[in-house]
Amino acid sequence: MNIGVTGATGQFGRNVVAGLVARVGAESVVALARSPEKAADLGVEARLADYDQPETLAPALQGVDTLLLISGSELGKRAEQHRAVIDAAKESGVSRIVYTSLLKADTSPLSLAEEHRQTEAMIKESGIAYTILRNGWYTENYTGSIPAAIEAGALVGSAGEGRIASATRADFAEAAIVVLTGRGHDQKTYELAGDDSYTLVDLAAEVSDQAGKTIPYQDLPMEDYSGILISVGLPEGFARAVAGFDVAASEGALWHDGRDLSRLIGRPTTPLRDAVAAALA
Protein backbone atom coordinates (compact mmCIF):
# COMPACT_ATOMS: atom_id res chain seq x y z
CA MET A 1 0.00 0.00 0.00
CA ASN A 2 1.39 3.37 -1.04
CA ILE A 3 0.01 6.38 0.82
CA GLY A 4 0.46 9.85 -0.65
CA VAL A 5 0.25 12.97 1.51
CA THR A 6 -0.31 16.37 -0.10
CA GLY A 7 1.04 19.44 1.68
CA ALA A 8 3.54 17.11 3.31
CA THR A 9 5.95 19.86 4.36
CA GLY A 10 3.35 21.81 6.34
CA GLN A 11 2.99 21.40 10.09
CA PHE A 12 0.05 19.02 9.82
CA GLY A 13 1.56 17.10 6.91
CA ARG A 14 4.81 16.56 8.77
CA ASN A 15 2.91 15.15 11.75
CA VAL A 16 1.07 12.72 9.48
CA VAL A 17 4.14 11.61 7.52
CA ALA A 18 6.12 10.92 10.70
CA GLY A 19 3.26 8.88 12.12
CA LEU A 20 2.80 6.93 8.90
CA VAL A 21 6.51 6.09 8.73
CA ALA A 22 6.33 4.71 12.28
CA ARG A 23 3.26 2.65 11.43
CA VAL A 24 3.79 1.34 7.88
CA GLY A 25 7.42 2.17 7.04
CA ALA A 26 9.03 4.88 4.94
CA GLU A 27 8.87 2.80 1.76
CA SER A 28 5.04 2.98 1.82
CA VAL A 29 4.79 6.78 2.11
CA VAL A 30 5.08 9.43 -0.60
CA ALA A 31 5.43 13.10 0.35
CA LEU A 32 3.75 15.40 -2.18
CA ALA A 33 4.90 18.99 -1.98
CA ARG A 34 5.21 22.23 -3.92
CA SER A 35 8.89 22.28 -2.91
CA PRO A 36 10.06 18.65 -2.63
CA GLU A 37 13.48 19.77 -1.40
CA LYS A 38 11.79 20.90 1.82
CA ALA A 39 10.73 17.28 2.40
CA ALA A 40 14.27 15.93 2.38
CA ASP A 41 14.29 15.52 6.17
CA LEU A 42 11.08 13.45 6.18
CA GLY A 43 12.92 10.30 5.14
CA VAL A 44 10.44 9.29 2.44
CA GLU A 45 10.17 9.67 -1.33
CA ALA A 46 9.25 13.26 -2.15
CA ARG A 47 7.55 14.31 -5.40
CA LEU A 48 6.64 17.64 -6.92
CA ALA A 49 2.89 18.23 -6.62
CA ASP A 50 1.89 21.86 -7.04
CA TYR A 51 -1.84 22.63 -6.78
CA ASP A 52 -1.30 25.56 -9.15
CA GLN A 53 0.52 23.43 -11.73
CA PRO A 54 -2.02 20.68 -12.53
CA GLU A 55 0.39 19.03 -14.94
CA THR A 56 2.55 18.01 -11.95
CA LEU A 57 -0.23 16.18 -10.14
CA ALA A 58 -0.97 13.03 -12.15
CA PRO A 59 2.73 12.05 -12.42
CA ALA A 60 3.12 12.66 -8.68
CA LEU A 61 0.22 10.32 -7.92
CA GLN A 62 1.45 7.37 -9.98
CA GLY A 63 1.46 4.26 -7.80
CA VAL A 64 -0.38 5.97 -4.93
CA ASP A 65 -3.26 3.83 -3.64
CA THR A 66 -4.55 6.03 -0.84
CA LEU A 67 -4.29 9.82 -0.92
CA LEU A 68 -4.52 12.20 2.01
CA LEU A 69 -5.69 15.47 0.50
CA ILE A 70 -4.79 18.10 3.07
CA SER A 71 -6.83 21.18 2.25
CA GLY A 72 -4.83 24.02 0.74
CA SER A 73 -4.09 27.21 2.64
CA GLU A 74 -4.91 29.80 -0.02
CA LEU A 75 -8.42 30.97 0.77
CA GLY A 76 -10.48 31.57 -2.34
CA LYS A 77 -8.32 29.29 -4.50
CA ARG A 78 -8.84 26.01 -2.72
CA ALA A 79 -11.86 24.61 -4.54
CA GLU A 80 -10.10 25.00 -7.89
CA GLN A 81 -6.85 23.56 -6.50
CA HIS A 82 -8.62 20.60 -4.92
CA ARG A 83 -10.48 19.87 -8.16
CA ALA A 84 -7.14 19.57 -9.93
CA VAL A 85 -5.94 17.04 -7.36
CA ILE A 86 -9.16 15.02 -7.53
CA ASP A 87 -9.03 14.94 -11.34
CA ALA A 88 -5.40 13.80 -11.22
CA ALA A 89 -6.30 11.12 -8.66
CA LYS A 90 -8.92 9.71 -11.04
CA GLU A 91 -6.44 9.78 -13.93
CA SER A 92 -3.73 8.07 -11.88
CA GLY A 93 -5.87 5.28 -10.45
CA VAL A 94 -5.90 6.40 -6.82
CA SER A 95 -8.35 4.07 -5.06
CA ARG A 96 -9.19 6.16 -1.98
CA ILE A 97 -9.11 9.82 -0.95
CA VAL A 98 -9.06 10.97 2.66
CA TYR A 99 -9.83 14.69 2.89
CA THR A 100 -9.29 17.14 5.76
CA SER A 101 -12.45 19.19 5.78
CA LEU A 102 -14.00 21.51 8.40
CA LEU A 103 -16.10 20.69 11.46
CA LYS A 104 -19.80 20.71 10.51
CA ALA A 105 -18.84 21.89 7.03
CA ASP A 106 -22.36 21.38 5.71
CA THR A 107 -23.84 23.90 8.17
CA SER A 108 -20.85 25.91 9.43
CA PRO A 109 -21.15 29.72 9.20
CA LEU A 110 -17.37 30.07 8.93
CA SER A 111 -16.18 31.75 5.74
CA LEU A 112 -13.88 28.74 5.26
CA ALA A 113 -16.80 26.36 4.93
CA GLU A 114 -17.96 26.94 1.35
CA GLU A 115 -14.75 25.69 -0.27
CA HIS A 116 -14.87 22.61 1.94
CA ARG A 117 -18.49 21.96 0.95
CA GLN A 118 -17.51 22.24 -2.71
CA THR A 119 -14.55 19.88 -2.26
CA GLU A 120 -16.60 17.28 -0.39
CA ALA A 121 -19.12 17.30 -3.24
CA MET A 122 -16.37 16.92 -5.87
CA ILE A 123 -14.87 13.96 -4.02
CA LYS A 124 -18.25 12.24 -3.74
CA GLU A 125 -18.93 12.83 -7.44
CA SER A 126 -15.52 11.43 -8.44
CA GLY A 127 -16.50 7.80 -7.87
CA ILE A 128 -13.36 7.25 -5.77
CA ALA A 129 -13.79 5.72 -2.31
CA TYR A 130 -13.47 8.44 0.29
CA THR A 131 -13.35 9.37 3.95
CA ILE A 132 -14.09 12.94 5.05
CA LEU A 133 -12.30 14.11 8.19
CA ARG A 134 -14.12 17.24 9.31
CA ASN A 135 -11.43 18.67 11.54
CA GLY A 136 -12.33 21.13 14.26
CA TRP A 137 -10.09 23.97 15.39
CA TYR A 138 -6.45 23.33 16.23
CA THR A 139 -5.79 24.26 19.86
CA GLU A 140 -2.55 25.78 18.53
CA ASN A 141 -4.63 28.40 16.69
CA TYR A 142 -5.17 29.91 20.11
CA THR A 143 -2.13 28.78 22.12
CA GLY A 144 0.11 30.27 19.43
CA SER A 145 -0.92 33.72 20.68
CA ILE A 146 0.03 33.01 24.31
CA PRO A 147 3.52 34.62 24.20
CA ALA A 148 2.06 37.82 22.74
CA ALA A 149 -0.73 37.77 25.34
CA ILE A 150 1.75 37.47 28.18
CA GLU A 151 3.83 40.31 26.75
CA ALA A 152 0.75 42.51 26.29
CA GLY A 153 -0.78 41.57 29.62
CA ALA A 154 -4.07 40.38 28.12
CA LEU A 155 -5.51 37.81 25.74
CA VAL A 156 -7.73 39.52 23.18
CA GLY A 157 -10.34 38.19 20.79
CA SER A 158 -13.95 38.39 19.67
CA ALA A 159 -15.21 34.96 20.72
CA GLY A 160 -17.34 36.17 23.63
CA GLU A 161 -18.55 33.23 25.69
CA GLY A 162 -18.46 30.82 22.75
CA ARG A 163 -17.22 27.36 23.63
CA ILE A 164 -14.37 25.93 21.57
CA ALA A 165 -13.99 22.15 21.27
CA SER A 166 -10.50 22.18 19.82
CA ALA A 167 -7.85 19.48 19.72
CA THR A 168 -4.16 19.59 19.00
CA ARG A 169 -2.67 19.23 15.56
CA ALA A 170 -1.14 15.93 16.73
CA ASP A 171 -4.59 14.63 17.74
CA PHE A 172 -6.03 15.34 14.29
CA ALA A 173 -2.93 13.92 12.58
CA GLU A 174 -3.29 10.69 14.56
CA ALA A 175 -6.89 10.36 13.39
CA ALA A 176 -5.77 10.77 9.79
CA ILE A 177 -3.13 8.06 10.28
CA VAL A 178 -5.69 5.67 11.75
CA VAL A 179 -8.03 6.18 8.80
CA LEU A 180 -5.27 6.01 6.18
CA THR A 181 -3.93 2.71 7.50
CA GLY A 182 -7.14 1.06 8.71
CA ARG A 183 -10.26 -0.52 7.25
CA GLY A 184 -13.95 0.23 7.53
CA HIS A 185 -13.77 3.97 6.90
CA ASP A 186 -14.95 4.14 3.27
CA GLN A 187 -17.80 6.56 2.48
CA LYS A 188 -17.77 7.86 6.04
CA THR A 189 -17.69 11.42 7.34
CA TYR A 190 -16.25 12.02 10.80
CA GLU A 191 -16.93 15.18 12.84
CA LEU A 192 -13.66 15.63 14.75
CA ALA A 193 -13.43 17.80 17.84
CA GLY A 194 -11.86 17.79 21.28
CA ASP A 195 -13.48 15.87 24.13
CA ASP A 196 -13.71 19.03 26.22
CA SER A 197 -14.51 22.63 25.36
CA TYR A 198 -13.45 25.98 26.80
CA THR A 199 -14.06 29.68 26.38
CA LEU A 200 -11.29 32.22 25.87
CA VAL A 201 -11.92 33.29 29.47
CA ASP A 202 -11.03 29.71 30.45
CA LEU A 203 -7.94 29.81 28.24
CA ALA A 204 -6.79 33.09 29.81
CA ALA A 205 -7.30 31.60 33.30
CA GLU A 206 -5.23 28.53 32.38
CA VAL A 207 -2.46 30.72 30.97
CA SER A 208 -2.54 32.90 34.09
CA ASP A 209 -2.28 29.85 36.32
CA GLN A 210 0.66 28.33 34.48
CA ALA A 211 2.50 31.59 33.78
CA GLY A 212 2.13 32.84 37.35
CA LYS A 213 0.84 36.15 36.04
CA THR A 214 -2.71 37.43 35.67
CA ILE A 215 -3.63 37.47 31.98
CA PRO A 216 -7.28 38.52 31.60
CA TYR A 217 -9.35 37.91 28.49
CA GLN A 218 -10.50 41.10 26.78
CA ASP A 219 -13.42 40.63 24.39
CA LEU A 220 -13.45 43.14 21.56
CA PRO A 221 -15.74 44.08 18.67
CA MET A 222 -14.65 42.39 15.45
CA GLU A 223 -13.38 45.66 13.92
CA ASP A 224 -11.19 46.41 16.94
CA TYR A 225 -9.75 42.89 17.05
CA SER A 226 -9.00 42.83 13.33
CA GLY A 227 -7.34 46.25 13.73
CA ILE A 228 -5.01 44.84 16.37
CA LEU A 229 -4.14 41.89 14.14
CA ILE A 230 -3.38 44.27 11.27
CA SER A 231 -1.20 46.38 13.57
CA VAL A 232 0.99 43.37 14.38
CA GLY A 233 1.54 42.55 10.73
CA LEU A 234 -1.29 40.34 9.50
CA PRO A 235 -2.55 41.17 5.99
CA GLU A 236 -5.86 43.01 6.21
CA GLY A 237 -7.94 40.31 4.51
CA PHE A 238 -6.52 37.55 6.69
CA ALA A 239 -6.88 39.65 9.85
CA ARG A 240 -10.55 40.22 9.12
CA ALA A 241 -11.02 36.52 8.44
CA VAL A 242 -9.40 35.56 11.76
CA ALA A 243 -11.57 38.03 13.66
CA GLY A 244 -14.57 36.64 11.81
CA PHE A 245 -13.68 33.12 12.94
CA ASP A 246 -13.82 34.37 16.54
CA VAL A 247 -17.23 35.94 16.00
CA ALA A 248 -18.43 32.63 14.54
CA ALA A 249 -16.99 30.88 17.59
CA SER A 250 -19.13 33.14 19.78
CA GLU A 251 -22.14 31.72 17.90
CA GLY A 252 -21.14 28.08 18.47
CA ALA A 253 -19.30 27.35 15.21
CA LEU A 254 -16.30 25.76 16.97
CA TRP A 255 -18.24 23.65 19.46
CA HIS A 256 -19.16 19.99 19.06
CA ASP A 257 -19.86 17.35 21.69
CA GLY A 258 -19.38 14.23 19.57
CA ARG A 259 -16.51 11.91 20.38
CA ASP A 260 -15.52 10.76 16.89
CA LEU A 261 -11.95 11.96 17.38
CA SER A 262 -11.19 10.21 20.66
CA ARG A 263 -12.93 7.06 19.41
CA LEU A 264 -10.76 7.02 16.29
CA ILE A 265 -7.48 7.57 18.11
CA GLY A 266 -8.38 5.30 21.01
CA ARG A 267 -7.54 7.80 23.74
CA PRO A 268 -8.82 11.10 25.14
CA THR A 269 -7.89 14.20 23.16
CA THR A 270 -5.09 16.40 24.54
CA PRO A 271 -6.34 18.52 27.47
CA LEU A 272 -6.10 22.30 27.23
CA ARG A 273 -3.71 22.43 30.18
CA ASP A 274 -1.22 20.23 28.33
CA ALA A 275 -1.45 22.35 25.17
CA VAL A 276 -0.88 25.52 27.20
CA ALA A 277 2.11 23.94 28.92
CA ALA A 278 3.58 23.03 25.54
CA ALA A 279 3.11 26.60 24.30
CA LEU A 280 4.77 28.04 27.39
CA ALA A 281 7.68 25.60 27.05
What does this structure look like?
This protein folds into two domains: 3-135, NAD(P)-binding Rossmann-like Domain (Rossmann fold); 136-167 and 193-256 and 267-281, UDP-galactose 4-epimerase, domain 1 (Alpha-Beta Complex). The protein has a seven-stranded parallel sheet, sandwiched between helices. It is 43% helix and 15% strand. It has 281 residues and is α/β, with parallel strands linked by helices. Helix 1 packs across helix 7 (169-181), helix 8 packs across helix 12 (272-280) and helix 9 packs antiparallel against helix 10 (236-250). The protein is globular and about 55 Å long. The chain has helices at 11-24, 57-60, 78-92, 113-125, 140-143, 146-152, 169-181, 200-211, 222-231, 236-250, 260-265, 272-280; strands at residues 3-5, 29-33, 45-48, 66-69, 96-102, 129-135, 155-157, 188-192, 217-219.
What's the β-strand tally?
Answer: 9
Strand content: 5-15%
CATH homologous superfamily name of the largest domain?
Answer: NAD(P)-binding Rossmann-like Domain
N-C termini distance? 38 Å
Q: Which strands sit side by side, in order, in the main sheet?
A: 3-2-1-4-5-6-8
Mean pLDDT: 96
Taking the sheet with the most strands, its summary is: 7 strands, parallel
**SS element count, helices:** 12
Residue runs with pLDDT of under 50 for 5 or more positions = none
- The helix-and-strand class reads alpha/beta
Task: Based on the coordinates given, report the CATH architecture of the largest domain.
Answer: 3-Layer(aba) Sandwich
CATH classification, class level of the largest domain: Alpha Beta
How many domains comprise the coordinates?
Answer: 2
Shape: globular
